[in-house]
Specification:
CATH class: Mainly Beta
Helix content: 10-25%
Shape: globular
Order of helices and strands: EEEEEEHEEEHE
Largest sheet: 10 strands, mixed
Number of strands: 10
CATH topology: L,D-transpeptidase catalytic domain-like
Distance between the termini: 20 Å
Radius of gyration: 14 Å
Strand content: 35-45%
Number of helices: 2
C-alpha cells in the first residue's frame, strides 16, 4: 500500500500491493510546496500516515485540533466562522521520514499538523487552495480512509 501526491496535477494516487488502484482530485497549499513551520506550504518528500482520526464520524463532521466539535458543516457555519480552516469528515495525520527535510526541527510535518482531510463541498478541488494540508472531497476521504492503514507510505512531490 502506498499513496503518491502530485502537486503539479493536484492528484493523489493510491497503490495496493504495487498495483495502481485509483486517482483522487485534491487541493494542496495555495502557497505552493515548502517545508518550514508556519509557511502554510505542502511539504515534499517521504512521509507516512501517523494516525487515522474520525473513523465513525458522519460526512461533514467538523474537526478542530483533531477533535470533533459536535458540528456538521453547512454554509451558515462558514458565514459565522469565516477564518476557520475547515477540516472535515476524516483526518490522515502525516509524519515525515526525512530528518532535515520534513522531520524534526522547523520542518517537521507532524508538528506542522499536515493532514489529508475532507473539505466543504463548495471548496474548489483540483487547484491549490489549502493552508498546507491535502484536501479531498468528503466521499473520497471516507473511501481512502477505509483503504489505508497507519504506517502507509505517502510520497509528496511536485510532479
Amino acid at each position: 500500500m502506498k499513496i503518491e501526491i502530485l502537486i503539479k496535477t493536484q492528484v493523489l494516487d493510491l497503490y495496493l500491493a504495487g498495483q495502481f488502484q485509483r486517482s483522487y482530485r485534491i487541493s494542496t497549499a495555495r502557497n505552493g510546496s515548502g517545508q518550514l513551520m508556519n509557511s502554510e506550504c505542502t511539504p515534499l518528500g517521504h512521509h507516512y500516515i501517523r494516525a487515522k482520526i474520525g473513523d465513525a464520524a458522519a460526512s461533514g463532521s467538523v474537526f478542530v485540533g483533531r477533535r470533533w466539535t459536535g458540528e456538521t458543516y453547512h454554509s451558515d457555519l462558514r458565514q459565522r466562522y469565516p477564518q476557520r480552516d475547515w477540516i472535515l469528515t476524516r483526518i490522515l495525520w502525516l509524519c515525515g521520514r526525512e530528518p532535515g527535510l520534513n522531520r524534526l526541527g522547523d520542518v517537521d510535518t507532524m508538528r506542522r499538523y499536515v493532514y489529508i482531510h475532507g473539505a466543504p463541498e463548495d471548496d474548489p478541488i483540483g487547484v491549490p487552495g489549502s493552508r498546507g494540508c491535502i484536501k479531498m472531497r468528503n466521499t473520497d476521504i471516507i473511501e481512502l480512509f477505509e483503504r489505508v492503514s497507519v504506517g502507509c507510505p505517502v510520497e509528496i512531490r511536485e510532479s
